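[job 4417] fold queue: 2 targets
>>> target A
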Amino acid sequence: MFEEFHFTMATHNYKVFSCFNRKFTVTEPEPPPDVQKAFSEFSEGASSMSADQLLQFLAEHQGEVNCTVSDSEQILQQSRKEDGETGFDLHYFFHFLQDSDLNVPLKSQVHHDMNAPMSHYFIYTGHNSYLTGNQLSSDCSDVPIIKALQRGVRVIELDLWPNSDKDDIDVVHGRTLTTPVSLLQCLKSIKEYAFVKSQYPLVITLEDHLTPDLQAKVAKMATQVFGELLYYPQTDSLMEFPSPESLKGRILISTKPPKEFLESSEKESADEVSSLRENANEQRTDNEVSILTKSAPEYKRLITIHAGKPKGEIQDELKAAGKVRRLSLSEQALEKASESYGADIVRFTHNNILRVYPKGTRLTSSNYKPHIGWTYGAQMVAFNMQGHGKSLWYMQGMFRSNGGCGYVKKPDFLIQKGPHDEVFDPKIALPVKKTLKVKVYLGKGWSSDFSPSDFDSYSPPDFYVKVCIVGVPADMIKKKTSVISNNWFPVWNEEFDFPLTVPELALLRVEVREEDKHQKDDFGGQTCLPVSELKSGFRSVPLYDEKGDKYKSVKLLMRFQFR
């Protein structure tokens, strides 16, 4: 017989109609039958497990084939350090499985090949990185830039405009009511926080609305602030992008060369604030045109990734050969182009960089579904990082891959051509490659991170879990558990199968909700996990709030298996 573990944590009182008290005892559940069975099997029926037996469990059940006896001994010591016991019994085994520091669901180290050209990676990319809120009237600041860098974002976008005296540079969303922040302040913060989360290269994309003298000032400012961190390209234009490994600890500039200023520099801003511009009806004078056609050689010299927007037909831009470059398309333009030129887009992204940015009507800083870019090989799927919502959860989930370094190696099918020059087509339904089996056992931590009445004023919460796959259209599946009523420590023990045709691009979305029969169900935590990075076996899965910040205690015990 297995021991039963019921740990009484607290008693919560709920007032009903101001005169009656309802008492609910908060208790932790016992280990699920699957956990008890695994403990019995690997401990060979004994009451405690040795370091060698734990190592066998880690290798055979959890797929941790690189673990050593030293690792298992360390787990034993950390799991029982609080009370000094020497035996690793079912109690400690169960608590080890629920420890989200010791029993993580994802690979925590950089493990992708980082020596390929930058065009072979998805890159964690921000849009209008300086905005604190909406696109029309929020403050501009270096604070959201710092937050993005702390999360591992590797592409920061700055919009550069002359200040009111025309003698310095502001970072501001032009022709809106947003308040500016100085470029110098942004550059200093970027230098300080560029590599706190990841050592791999940081790209600064500049949306440039400057005269040549101010462009020269930008070049001087960037050179002085960044010093040796700033990477200078050896040639005017590259035939192949450098690798992330070769550029560790370096900062790169990506923008349009000065000579292209008049042709394309305002296209994206026009997309974003077209309604304001129609009212403003601003036109450049011949004198302004004459001034702006002069180039700033110091500025041009800093540009590693040459950028541009389509000047003519999109298919011509996609098929242009020669020097590598970055092309920017709005989410709408990409979706439209993919209808007729999907294969050309994928081929373009084999060697060149495609940046996708939000459509201009997203004035509240909402985001789009990132897979519209990723499935066509777009490396820089630019997001408003200051917002929140499911799309941003997907973005955060994708970049939990590869140790959270901000660079995720694209699948081979998005880099290579077939024998007949064919490329990946996300619209074609493919056969199932593998099936992911997900079992949701139990959850804990809400009684620590929330107050007793946060979900329901009269009783403990009624939790359920939504489990979904986000990826190519053929793989999109939504499932959910039953509702567990009046319990801070819900136990579900429910399993779901997810057949996957393109597991390389699939994300597992997990969201806990609290059922409310009278209004919208309350939010209880979420996470998004890249399927290709999932570790098999029992895993402690920490949950995050709606902005993507991790809760201190809230987590689920789950099991992942591939068939």
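>>> target B
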Amino acid sequence: MSNPQEQQRQFGIMSEIPGEVRGLARTRCPLCTELFLAPKILPCLHTFCMACLEQLEPFSVLGFQAEDSDLTSDGSWLQDHNQPPLSVLCPVCDTEVDLPPGGINDLTTDHLAMNEVLLETLQAQGPGMLCDLCVDGEAVKHCPTCKANLCHFCCHAHRRQKKTASHAVVDLEDLKGYSRTEKPILCPSHPSEDLTLFCEQCEQPVCRDCVVGKHRQHPYAFTASVIHKHGDSMRDLLKSTQLHVDTLEGALRHIEGVSSAICNRVEAVAGEIHTFADGYIRAIEEHRDQLLKQLEGLKVQKETLLHLQKAQLEQLLMDMRTGVEFTERLLTSGSDLEILITKGVVASRLRKLNKVDYSIHPGVEDGIQFSPHEKAGQCCGYEVFGTILYKAVDPAKCVLQGEDLHSARQNQLASFTLLCNDTSGEQMGRGGEPIWVTIIHKDKKDCIIKPSVCDKRDGTYHISYTPEELGTYTVCICVKGQHVQGSPFTLTVKNKFRRHQGVFHCCTFCSSGGQKAARCACSGTMPGGYQGCGHGHKGHPGCPHWSCCGRAIENSECSAVPPGENLQRSLLKTVAL
């Protein structure tokens, strides 16, 4: 008897895999999850049972099928060769794959999967396999030469036939534990013939009957002779594909590394955010406590000032009542002599009480506000917002500034500024105060200028107006219903500023280049027929002056009477340069 290694070589059995079974994913259909039955390979190299593939809907022919097409569940729609090439979507990779003209039946059979199914069936516990010859009895023997599984009856017949009597038959139990076994691969066109030849023109295995029929005159060779050439070709393709596999695996590893780095970075940044947020929360809580403490201090301060003012007013009221009651009792109940005797002390007391200066307004106001958007500086290293506004504006300390405060020009925009200060004279630093401004003509009470007040939000207010009537106006500016410092005051509106229409020159003779017809509004004259002025001549002002009005100040208003008023025509003509 041959040794186990020789037996493996003869029976087509490869190395053992002791104690484990090959992965079930190679023996089971991804669709039905059962052992492969007539497995077919799609062009994307995924294997499915033939029956499972026949249940798939066609992909590319949906637009070509007539509405009355009869698509049967047995795959007959794939047998119509008049249809365009069909395609289906692979259930595993979603790739659209084209089917051969013959449909699913023409797909390549996965014999490797069939062998693995056979091996798994041998190794599994349960009902055995059927005999390959009679298909009735349970297979108990295996002929490595014929690659067929035989029952007891067929095994005896196999040994009695002269053609197969020399075949060594082994028990199926002896095949368990091996990694590979085979069944014969027969020609699909001639089921009784083995595929032992290879057609070079069609590039497919054929049998002896094929080369004298359909593949007549095609070059062919034995499969054992061409396996090296085609195997080497596939190995070259495998190497080039493996390079892409290695590249893709490296790219995936790099992506996984970047993804891991992103996760790590996200965790680190999340920690930073939590640290920042926790610190910010502590800063806000501390700022809150400081604000509440400051608010409580303001409350105590204001209550103390109000209590002191209240005590002073109560004492003054008591003194006033004492003086009033005493004087009323003296005047109603005292005799003339008693009144005259106490007149001096009573009058002195009352005069003293009447001279006492007191305020009927509370010394402090309830003007405490919270401004959440105002910067409050740093707290625990964080910039915080929110301040308490407790300054109260004092109208008596508010001041007015600006050139147009007491004078303005007709129909020209004028403006001045109001600075609001608190009781200590410091600028408020914020806006929002109620400002009331009136500008009324003294002689024409119905002539009222409507001013515009712009809050600068820093304690200053820009007040602008445009007077239309000449004359004197009374301006009143109030804050919180009280006049500010200097209010009310008088505003004088003058004529519109008149610009000079002439030239500022030394004399007519110089500015005109000696023209005799050139004139000047000054009283200067020159002999020799000149109508203007000249240096050292009679009436020359002795300094540069305007030719239109004769004024000697360059930055001044023109005093020439506008056209239409009584004026000598000679004074209106000026030098033209």
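[job 4417] complete. Note on B: The chain has a mean pLDDT of 81.
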